[in-house]
Amino acid sequence: MMGILLINMGSPLSKKEMRQFLFNMFSDKAILPFPKIPRTLLAFMISTFRHSGSWKKYQQIGGSKLKESMKLINEQLASEIGKDYMVTSAYSYSKPDIQQGVESLRDKGIKDIRVITMYPHSAYSTTESVKTDLAIIQKKYPELKMTELGTYGQNELFINYWVDTIQKAIDKYGYKHPTLVFSAHAIPQYNVDDGDTYVDEIKASAKLIADKMKLPYRVAFQSKIGKVKWVDPDTKDCLKMMKAEGIDEIMLVPISFVNENLETAYDQGIEIAPYGKEELGFKHICRVEIPASHPLLIATFKQLLIEK
């Protein structure tokens, strides 16, 4: 039997878990590239002073739906690939963590594990962080064969997944010819300068989707924190430019995610889309909601497994 480990960032389910989630995230060198002692101190300060405000945001969106989505994807993928595979999920910054996920498969006698991340595009802060964790676990359990199956942002099935999801949103809102604003989570510019391919991969996915739908599009970045330079353009700045150009039908597409989370439901749904409507005066602006699961997303993961 082969093990399938689905990995995501994770999410808190309570205010207490919110504090631990933030501490775990900012303790990761892939997130804060500082030496261990100052990084740990910063993680402590950030989690102490920001967890209450962050938890209030979760409350505004009705709590995290990420783990519910992961459970559904887990179940549907297991159903699709059959009894010769065992599928489980793990998280980088909440429980069960990646080591616990690997150990749950190992305890069942599984030694061949294929890893699929919920990150369609590679980035130092996501896919490379997962690879670092897997390398540490591999040293602890050298008898295991662990294969990370890579990203899939340009996979045809994945592109079709977004085409279908966006088309359903167009039908729902009655838009005629919207401009798609692919709003991805921003990364620090210094990562790009060091060779991170994330931005190029996002742009490649966006072009494939928009070309297939024959719709105009822009690529922008959101959810920046801190004072360092992040990749441009910021999504709100992008909307300002579009307003000046007289564009009025806009759909925000959370292209860098496959599960609803704080960056989609809150940042896009409560901050960015209302900003476009109330501050900039757009009459037609909405965000495309991410389905909890989708047959074409499951097909994408199944194809990754078959190809390996």
Describe the structure.
This protein is of the alpha/beta class and 308 residues long. It has two domains: 2-151, 3-Layer(aba) Sandwich (Rossmann fold); 156-287, Rossmann fold (3-Layer(aba) Sandwich), CATH 3.40.50.1400. The protein is built from eleven helices and eight strands. It has a four-stranded parallel beta sheet, with helices on both faces. A four-stranded parallel beta sheet has the order 6-5-7-8, sandwiched between helices. Helix 1 packs antiparallel against helix 2, helix 6 crosses helix 8 (198-213) and helix 6 packs antiparallel against helix 11. It is globular, with a radius of gyration of 19 Å. The mean pLDDT is 96.
Q: Give the CATH topology of the largest domain.
A: Rossmann fold
**Average pLDDT rating:** 96
Instruction: Output the CATH class name of the largest domain.
Output: Alpha Beta
Query: What is the string of SSEs from the N terminus onward?
Result: EHHHEHEHEHEHHEHEHEH
Looking at the chains present, what oligomeric state does this protein adopt? single chain
Structural class: alpha/beta
Distance between the termini: 15 Å
Relative helix content:
40-55%
Query: Which outline best applies?
Result: globular
Unreliable stretches (pLDDT < 50, length at least 5) are none
Number of strands: 8
Number of helices: 11
Largest beta-sheet details = 4 strands, parallel
Number of domains: 2
The CATH architecture of the largest domain comes to 3-Layer(aba) Sandwich
> What percentage of the residues does DSSP assign to strands (E)?
5-15%
Strand order, main sheet: write it out.
Answer: 2-1-3-4
Radius of gyration, rounded? Answer: 19 Å
